[in-house]
Amino acid sequence: MSDFSQQGLITTLQRLNENNAAALERDLENLARESPIALVLPCHAGELGEPALDHVIEEIAGAKFLREIVVSMNGLEQRSAKQAQKKFARLPQPHRILWNDSPRVTRARNTIAQNVIAGKGLNVWSAIGLLARESRCNIIALLDCDVLTFRREMLVRLCYACTALDYAFAKMYYSRVTDRIYGRVSRLFVAPLLQALMRVSGHQPLLDFLLSFRYPLAGEMAITRELAASLPFDGGWGLEIAMLCEIFRRAEPRKICQVDGGSDYNHRHQPLGSESGGLFKMSKEIARALFLQLLEEGLPICSTFTDAVLESYRSESREALVRFKNLARINGLHFDEADEMRCVQSFARALAEASAETNTGAGAILPAWDRIEKTRVDFFERINRITASQTNSSE
């Protein structure tokens, strides 16, 4: 049974009753008539052939509480564009596909921000801009497309928090456990890094806020349209951590919650990788985004500071490894200590590189939509939405 403890700065909405999913969804369908809900599916073309995406589509097809769905994609080519059209045609709800790294869209976006990483952050930013500009929905939900064990009731609980319970932002958390404990970046990098930063800088309001979240890297969330439109976005893997930092500056903690998504939440598992990809690249971009956010808070992100943080991280991450080794052992779960240690060492190298690159300006930030002057550029008048005619064109 889930706990009901309320610790930290935000509300935690645990799953205490497994038998109210149908009633909750009926309530949400009624609430959505007055407070329309749009769903954003940030997706890479490489996910089109994955069984997880088929499963997600099957689950959300029955979501009558959704007014519309925006599939926001990168990595598409002409052939995969047609494949995307065919796959998402199975959705009964009104839906659109945004092709975010097409030549036409890239040219339009360069009038707003250049050197932007074409990744999940860009996909989310584009979809939010479209929905904010049209103003037809009150709530925007985001859902990753690589969740093999996704259930529609998880999305119901998120959206319910922002409709019935009047939260401005709701973030899901979940236990990533099967025969072993997953979530290496969260438990072996982000959590120890936040503790290391706390040790070096002392208690900071932003760090206290981030430490209130049980799974800060979760991609599943719901947010009011007004709050979403006020946020600048990191274009890459720093999306989730940077988004929380920006929400910290714009919303009161009492308007923010985290929602229990249950256990056995099985995302696609990333390889450890190297400088060019995998968990190394992910952790490096997360660290760089976090350092830039701390700069905004007035912390002196100099070499003396980052050297101290790196040394503290090494200590905190080793302690985290021991804790999870013991957690796995008492639950009879598989634990590969050598592999976990390789992760910790790789994350430390990523942190060192991120520290050195903090002031280089790498990875442009996408501006908040409510601050983009309409006279400068009308991005969505020029955006390349996938239609049959556009799929047949050279762009």
Question: What is the CATH architecture term?
Answer: Alpha-Beta Complex
Low-confidence stretches: 384-395
- The helix count comes to 15
Multimer state? single chain
Beta-strand residue percentage: 5-15%
What would the average pLDDT be, to the nearest integer?
A: 88
The assigned structural class equals alpha/beta
Largest sheet: 8 strands, mixed
Could you name the CATH homologous superfamily?
Spore Coat Polysaccharide Biosynthesis Protein SpsA, Chain A
Strand order of the largest sheet: 1-9-6-7-5-2-3-4
Question: Number of DSSP strands?
Answer: 10
CATH level 3 topology: Spore Coat Polysaccharide Biosynthesis Protein SpsA, Chain A
Rg, rounded, reads: 21 Å
**Overall body shape:** globular
CATH class: Alpha Beta
In total, the number of domains comes to 1
What is the straight-line distance between the termini? Answer: 53 Å
Q: How much helicity do the residues have?
A: 40-55%
| SSE order, one letter for each helix or strand | EHEHEHEHHEHEHHEHEHEHHHEHH
Q: Could you explain the architecture of this structure?
A:
- The chain is an alpha/beta fold and 395 residues long.
- It has a single domain (11-389), classed as Spore Coat Polysaccharide Biosynthesis Protein SpsA, Chain A (Alpha-Beta Complex).
- It contains 15 helices and ten strands.
- An eight-stranded mixed β-sheet has the order 1-9-6-7-5-2-3-4, with helices on both faces. A two-stranded antiparallel ribbon has the order 8-10.
- Helix 2 links the parallel strand 2 and strand 3 (66-74).
- Helix 7 packs across helix 12, helix 11 crosses helix 13 (337-357) and helix 12 packs antiparallel against helix 13 (337-357).
- The longest helix has 28 residues, at 303-330.
- It is globular.
- The termini are far apart.
- Residues 384-395 have low confidence and may be disordered.
